[in-house]
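User: Reviewer 2 asked us to show a designed sequence for the structure in our supplementary figure. I'm pasting the C-alpha cells here. Could you produce the per-position amino acids so we can include them in the response letter?
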C-alpha cells in the first residue's frame, strides 16, 4: 500500500510532467511570426505580394524578391493574374527541344 510520502512524490512527479509539457507548447508558439497582423507558424511560406516570398524561421520573418526566368526569346511574354514573372504564351507550336 502507498504511504503518504509515496502519494506526495507521485503527485509531484505528475505536476512536473504537466509543467514540462506546458512549457514545450509555449516554445512552439514562441517560434511563430507576425507580419501585418497575420500570424504564421514556424516554417510557413507565403507570398504577401506577387513578386515577394516570405518564410517564418524560428520567430523571424525572412522575405526575398522572386527571381524570374529569362523570357527574352519570347516574342510576346505575358504576366498571369496574381503572378510576378512573365511567361511565354502557348502559341500552339510543339517544342521538340530535348527529344
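Assistant: Here is a per-position design you can include in the supplement:
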Amino acid at each position: 500500500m502507498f504511504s503518504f510520502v509515496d502519494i506526495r512524490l507521485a503527485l509531484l512527479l505528475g505536476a512536473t510532467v504537466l509543467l514540462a509539457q506546458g512549457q514545450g507548447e509555449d516554445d512552439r508558439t514562441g517560434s511563430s511570426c507576425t507580419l501585418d497582423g497575420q500570424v504564421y507558424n514556424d516554417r510557413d511560406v507565403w507570398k504577401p505580394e506577387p513578386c515577394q516570398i516570405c518564410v517564418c524561421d524560428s520567430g523571424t520573418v525572412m522575405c526575398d524578391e522572386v527571381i524570374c526566368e529569362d523570357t527574352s526569346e519570347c516574342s510576346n511574354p505575358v504576366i498571369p493574374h496574381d503572378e510576378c514573372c512573365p511567361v511565354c504564351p502557348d502559341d500552339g507550336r510543339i517544342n521538340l527541344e530535348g527529344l
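For the response letter, you might also mention the following. Residues 1-30 form one domain. The chain has two domains: 1-30, 31-90.
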